[in-house]
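Hi D.,

Good news: the full-assembly prediction came through. Inputs first.
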Amino acid sequence: MLPIAVDAMGGDHAPSEIVSGARLAFEAGIPVTLVGRAADIGDTGPLVVHEASEVIAMDDDPAQGVRRKKDSSLVRAAELVRDGAASAMVSAGNTGATMASALLRMGRIKGVNRPAIATPLPVIGTTPTTLLDAGANAEVQPEWLVQFAQMGSVYARHRFGIVKPRVGLLSIGEESSKGTSLVKATHRMLAEAGGVHFIGNVEGRDVLTDQVDVVVTDGFTGNVMLKTLEGALDALVPALITGLREEKALSDHVEAVVPAIYRVRDRLDPENTGGAMLLGVDGVCIISHGSSRAKSIANAARIAQEMVLAGVVGELRSAVAPA
Amino acid sequence: MLPIAVDAMGGDHAPSEIVSGARLAFEAGIPVTLVGRAADIGDTGPLVVHEASEVIAMDDDPAQGVRRKKDSSLVRAAELVRDGAASAMVSAGNTGATMASALLRMGRIKGVNRPAIATPLPVIGTTPTTLLDAGANAEVQPEWLVQFAQMGSVYARHRFGIVKPRVGLLSIGEESSKGTSLVKATHRMLAEAGGVHFIGNVEGRDVLTDQVDVVVTDGFTGNVMLKTLEGALDALVPALITGLREEKALSDHVEAVVPAIYRVRDRLDPENTGGAMLLGVDGVCIISHGSSRAKSIANAARIAQEMVLAGVVGELRSAVAPA
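Then the structure:
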């Protein structure tokens, strides 16, 4: 297969951790190529670097960044996919600019209203729950949410091997009468939509359970949920350790398990499941967390390879095609 | 002070746990009275029971329940407050029906557009964060959110002694340009609103930190966030224990700390902080979690007493009065 274009310049730990991650992927047999400023990147070992002279910073305005920095690593990575020189792109950089680059250079899949970010949330003991939209579209239409359900089902099927993913619509009560007018209208449409195994409304507390495989919502609510979960993990683990340390009688036991608590924490972290995918653009685009280190980047490259080999873009095209 | 009217019939463990909770409160010196079907309630010791022949079930339609069951414990409890026979009401019953009873019988504070549910979220090491609206209004207007900010500030001041509560607007980025059109319009209005120490947008991951005291959002997003946090706690603690148990070398230490993990978990549970208050109705109305047991009900009665003694309803009236 064609190499995966990894944006060497994006992310809090770019370029060093990104390059290390790309090398890890390469050593695992995944074809990768780097995109960025060769002078900044340094030694890449056996990896090819596609020169791109500009960088869209983490806090740049996405639309302006993509419009003005035509020779940026993000724009060039998307062009490599468009031009058939790469099979996929991976970036831990500015999320908005990653979406804009993919959308403007690769284009949308025919029939897709809006691309959405599908983010897997780890669920202990079973397959992850796919949340979408995790932040691409703050405001949506019911028709878009129906497509998110169709696209999320394709993703969950190919990424996690779930034959018939159960799709839930995020709301504030199980009854179809609960929620905003948007949710109520979407509920009616999902009940009749093709290619979706719709199980009805789900609530915030169902998302991390075995009750649902794909959770559909607008990008505002989805992003709030994702960040709330990240924040909960950030808050709860130190709080738990502090609380345990207050139990003086247990101090030997507590100190012995503290490192293990952090190990389990890392398995539960949505950042470490990784492989959020921008669904609906005409190519594979994997969005990594800004805080990604080498292992996360290698993991993202592996997921990109899986999605390419599974032909997910073609599957998405079929899923949204009018019946 | 006048007694607090406790709805004996509402909640998953009514009436037995509710009655036990009311008795705990009474023994702690808090004046309480029960409302419900005396025949079902049984022995109440020294507590007076106000007879109400009907019950609005947990899954009844709220508006219909309140309209049709005029002699229900919820409607009667709200009437006791309206008629000056009780100082506050407490219920662990049907949340929608509790809101409707309070709103229809007590009425709104003059000038309030819509009442909102203020729910405290525990933050280890500091005062809780007050989240509102936690579910009363799925769809809102910017003006309502500004009032929520004003009312939430009053609540945080009197409930937690925070002199100048920092108010954040929930969004999906810190910049004022981020979020939905509703959020952007609200941001502009909050920046100029009286009685609010507005610190700008906050994200899901800030809510459980020491960065903000009052988080304002619509009732859809707020309810999703609250239930996501509850679900995260439900999922993470068992997942953590399962993960720790996989580390066989640590098994003695792990088993020794498991009970302590559950003890800390309970301190972190928003259900146990309790004392969600319906702000904006003309009386004190405390909404307890449906799963409340005796201790939570006693705690809710204590909070109701504090809010009455602090004159919070009068403070709310001043906060929303036009300058």
